[in-house]
């Protein structure tokens, strides 16, 4: 298989997504990451568009990049103007990049109705703009905007625009499915037509309006295209561009094209999540290859099978793209899920152990009562421990009372009293709090801290309440989910009840019990 060059346009096309606004600093950080990923071209932006992009090009020159060539993006000269006098082309040259990408019109509709010029003048605009950039020693990538739409309506003219770019000296001609409306077979036919019309190496640039951008890019590669343009996570205007993350994984792992090294491929998840973070967008947990759920297994039958052989339900080894396999525990679990989850926490269990079967049954019953264990692994591990006949819990809450009082003109106060069995003794404590859960937590800690001083490091980082049957109004059943940390490890627990305090107590008690036991590697 021949080589394929990766061209990233996150900093230009990606910033056209609604909701994204990169700072110059953001763009420089992303550039560095893309370079580490082994991207061959990084399009930094449009220097003729705004001061931020112009500053990016000034600053990126000082970066020492190992793989990436920086490209500046702009359009062909305006109609009726000399290329030398066109301010956008001047800004492109002033950007001082080794590569320049210039976009021109391939579709006659655009020439007549958008540029409002003649077909001949558009050909001259393309030829002369490319030639000017070449005369200044740049590597010139010509982006044929709307190539596929143009080729479908007026093939002769669309192909004539490619020839104009070739005559101007373009190093690459990139066929764009700008409106994202093409089907894979139309892409293949368009690429074949372009191959017959010009001899310059071809590239592909697709948009995802029919959810086909990745498939269309791969179809073009199969037809001989040698450059693929896309954005990290598919960020882009409207519904987005071709997702370069999936394209890289597919080229390397499915098509055997060595576009990045194995080590670079293993950074794919990190880069995808990094760019989401910088873009201030939640990372899509269901994103193929790199999402947190991309290799998450929930169905009992699936988990039982992957415990025997992982390829039974995984199309690749997740480590190849820097991701990890995960096992979820829920009412859809079998014994395999429990055994696998326990193993993640350092507990080796025999699936034939009656405790395992008991926990599977209990999880199904509790989920029916409103518990939800998928993201409350610590509560699952505690159930396993408690199911064992020799397990002695570090403490047991026997009784509790919580009072909330509000008197006219004064803020509400909460007070809790607990009765706890600890090392065979009964301990009574009471404490105040700024709310009932806080008071209960304080009273419990007062009882436990003298015996378990390590609990002073344990604190809640998140507390969520989910109403399970809102139609029942104030009588609704609620689920309380707590995330805790001891500064090193993070764990999650759950409780459910029609009483919000009881649900909180269950989740809180699990959180503290899990936090006490230092023998288990909590994650
Ligand atoms: C397919 C793509 O994604 S291309 C990238 C799209 N991205 C952007 O547009 C973001 C950056 N753009 C900008 O900052 C501004 O639009 C600028 C600086 C480029 C131009 O701004 P203005 O001069 O105010 O023009 P405006 O944006 O209103 O209109 C675009 C003009 O470019 C012309 N034009 C569009 N494509 C081309 C082209 N390939 N070659 C020459 N002229 C073109 C249009 O006909 C229009 O001309 P008109 O003003 O005579 O009607
Ligand atoms: C060049 C470009 O971004 C497009 O045609 O979609």
Topology, element by element:
Layout: E1 5-8, H1 24-37, E2 41-45, H2 51-60, E3 69-75, H3 87-94, E4 99-105, H4 108-115, H5 119-135, E5 139-145, H6 147-153, H7 155-168, E6 172-177, H8 184-197, E7 202-206, H9 213-222, E8 227-230, H10 244-254, H11 262-265, H12 268-278, E9 296-297, H13 300-308, E10 326-327, H14 335-344, H15 354-368, H16 377-387, E11 396-405, E12 413-422, E13 425-433, H17 436-448, E14 459-467, E15 478-485, E16 490-497, H18 500-516
Parallel strand pairs: 1-2, 1-8, 2-3, 3-4, 4-5, 5-6, 6-7, 7-8, 9-10
Antiparallel strand pairs: 11-12, 12-13, 14-15, 15-16
The protein binds acetyl coenzyme *A and pyruvic acid.
Helix/strand-derived class?
A: alpha/beta
Main sheet properties: 8 strands, parallel, barrel
**Helical percent range?**
25-40%
Poorly predicted residue ranges: none
Beta-strand residue fraction: 15-25%
CATH architecture of the largest domain: Alpha-Beta Barrel
| Count of domain modules | 3
> What is the CATH class of the largest domain?
Alpha Beta
Radius of gyration: 30 Å
Average residue-wise pLDDT: 95
Q: What is the CATH topology of the largest domain? A: TIM Barrel
Count, helices = 18
Tell me how many strands there are.
16
Termini gap: 43 Å
CATH fourth-tier homologous superfamily of the largest domain: Aldolase class I
Order of the strands making up the biggest sheet: 1-2-3-4-5-6-7-8
Overall geometry comes to elongated
List all distinct small molecules, including ions and cofactors, that are bound in this structure: acetyl coenzyme *A, pyruvic acid
Keywords: Amino-acid biosynthesis, Branched-chain amino acid biosynthesis, Isoleucine biosynthesis, Transferase
Protein name: Citramalate synthase
InterPro entries: 2-isopropylmalate_synth_dimer, AIPM/Hcit_synth_CS, Aldolase_TIM, Citramal_synthase, LeuA/HCS_post-cat, LeuA_allosteric_dom_sf, PYR_CT
Pathway: Amino-acid biosynthesis; L-isoleucine biosynthesis; 2-oxobutanoate from pyruvate: step 1/3
């Amino acid at each position: 298989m021949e080589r394929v060059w990766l061209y990233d346009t996150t900093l230009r096309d990606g910033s056209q997504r609604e909701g994204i606004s990169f700072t110059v600093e953001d763009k420089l950080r992303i550039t560095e990451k893309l370079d580490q990923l082994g991207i061959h071209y990084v399009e930094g932006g449009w220097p003729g568009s705004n001061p931020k992009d112009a500053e990016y090009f000034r600053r990126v020159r000082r970066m020492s990049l190992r793989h990436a060539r920086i490209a500046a993006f702009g359009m062909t000269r305006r109609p009726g103007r000399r290329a030398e006098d066109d301010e956008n082309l001047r800004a492109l040259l002033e950007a001082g990049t080794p590569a320049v990408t210039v976009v021109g019109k391939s579709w006659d509709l655009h020439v007549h109705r958008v540029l409002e010029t003649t077909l001949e003048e558009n050909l001259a605009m393309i030829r002369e703009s490319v030639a000017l950039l070449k005369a200044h020693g740049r590597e010139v990538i010509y982006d044929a905007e709307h190539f596929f739409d143009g080729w479908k309506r007026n093939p002769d003219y669309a192909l004539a625009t490619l020839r104009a770019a070739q005559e101007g000296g373009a190093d690459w001609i990139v066929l764009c499915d700008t409106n994202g409306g093409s089907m894979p077979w139309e892409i293949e036919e368009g690429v074949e037509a372009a191959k017959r019309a010009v001899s310059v190496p071809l590239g592909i640039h697709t948009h995802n309006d029919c959810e086909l951008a990745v498939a269309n890019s791969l179809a073009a590669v199969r037809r001989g295209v040698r450059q693929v343009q896309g954005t990290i996570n598919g960020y882009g205007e409207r519904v987005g561009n071709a997702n370069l993350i999936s394209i890289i994984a597919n080229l390397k792992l499915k098509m055997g094209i060595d576009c990045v090294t194995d080590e670079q491929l293993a950074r794919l998840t990190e880069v995808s999540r990094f760019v989401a973070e910088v873009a201030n967008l939640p990372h899509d947990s269901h994103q193929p290859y790199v999402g947190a759920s991309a290799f998450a297994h929930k169905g009992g039958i699936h988990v039982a099978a992957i415990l025997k052989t992982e390829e039974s339900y995984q199309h690749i080894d997740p480590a190849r793209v820097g991701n990890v396999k995960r096992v979820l525990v829920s009412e859809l679990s079998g014994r395999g899920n429990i055994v696998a989850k326990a193993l993640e926490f350092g507990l080796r269990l025999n699936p034939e152990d009656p405790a395992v079967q008991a926990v599977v049954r209990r999880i199904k019953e509790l989920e029916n009562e409103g518990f939800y264990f998928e993201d409350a692994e610590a509560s699952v591990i505690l159930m396993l421990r408690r199911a064992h006949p020799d397990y002695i819990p570090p403490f047991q809450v026997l009784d509790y009372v919580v009072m909330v009082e509000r008197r006219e003109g004064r803020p509400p106060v909460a007070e809790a009293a607990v009765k706890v069995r600890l090392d065979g003794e009964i301990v009574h404590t009471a404490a105040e709090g700024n709310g009932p859960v806080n008071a209960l937590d304080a009273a419990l800690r007062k009882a436990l801290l003298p015996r378990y001083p390590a609990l002073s490091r344990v604190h809640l980082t998140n507390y969520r309440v989910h109403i399970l049957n809102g139609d029942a109004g104030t009588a609704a059943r609620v689920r309380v989910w707590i995330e805790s940390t001891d500064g090193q490890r993070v764990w999650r627990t759950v409780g459910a009840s029609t009483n919000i305090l009881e649900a909180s107590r269950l989740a809180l008690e699990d959180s503290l019990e899990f936090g006490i036991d230092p023998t288990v590697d909590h994650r």
